[in-house]
């Protein structure tokens, strides 16, 4: 790999992992999940619920676009929207049991991917990669918030 190719190769490794995750989800009956849904799931799995405004900010889209995505996820049974306990104008979005099962399937597949990578390059080498990526993310975070969100 030539100098300067690493960011592109990291992107391709991520894409290969995402393709594998979505193939596994389809196999498990979650074939209606799109990559954009995963970014909503990622946020909701780390909060006690979020509003459409918070989800829009996380995704880097308008509230209207987030609301449309949430309507799709609600129709598919992955999320529920309920009255917000502190703000009557807002609705609190949270994962349903189906949503949590999908998140669990993703976590399990991420772990399987890491296991396969360790078998491919060796656990110690993968630990070095993990440490390096964590340092890169920490550095980027120190310069502003870094979230896992789609590149639209």
From TrEMBL:
<dbReference type="InterPro" id="IPR000835">
    <property type="entry name" value="HTH_MarR-typ"/>
</dbReference>
<feature type="domain" description="HTH marR-type">
    <location>
        <begin position="3"/>
        <end position="138"/>
    </location>
</feature>
<dbReference type="InterPro" id="IPR036388">
    <property type="entry name" value="WH-like_DNA-bd_sf"/>
</dbReference>
<dbReference type="Pfam" id="PF12802">
    <property type="entry name" value="MarR_2"/>
</dbReference>
<dbReference type="GO" id="GO:0006950">
    <property type="term" value="P:response to stress"/>
</dbReference>
<protein>
    <submittedName>
        <fullName>MarR family transcriptional regulator</fullName>
    </submittedName>
</protein>
<dbReference type="InterPro" id="IPR011991">
    <property type="entry name" value="ArsR-like_HTH"/>
</dbReference>
<dbReference type="InterPro" id="IPR036390">
    <property type="entry name" value="WH_DNA-bd_sf"/>
</dbReference>
<dbReference type="InterPro" id="IPR039422">
    <property type="entry name" value="MarR/SlyA-like"/>
</dbReference>
<dbReference type="GO" id="GO:0003700">
    <property type="term" value="F:DNA-binding transcription factor activity"/>
</dbReference>
């Amino acid at each position: 790999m030539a100098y300067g190719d690493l960011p592109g190769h990291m992107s391709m490794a991520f894409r290969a992992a995402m393709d594998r995750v979505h193939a596994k989800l389809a196999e498990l009956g979650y074939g209606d999940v799109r990559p954009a849904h995963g970014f909503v799931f990622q946020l909701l799995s780390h909060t006690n619920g979020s509003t459409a405004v918070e989800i829009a900010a996380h995704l880097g889209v308008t509230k209207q676009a987030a609301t449309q995505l949430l309507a799709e996820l609600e129709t598919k049974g992955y999320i529920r929207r309920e009255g917000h306990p502190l703000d009557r104008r807002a609705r609190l979005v949270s994962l349903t049991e189906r949503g949590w099962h999908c998140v669990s399937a993703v976590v399990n597949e991420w772990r399987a991917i890491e296991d396969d990578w360790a078998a491919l390059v060796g656990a110690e080498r993968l630990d070095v990669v993990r440490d390096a990526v964590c340092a890169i993310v920490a550095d980027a975070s120190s310069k502003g918030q870094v979230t896992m969100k789609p590149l639209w």
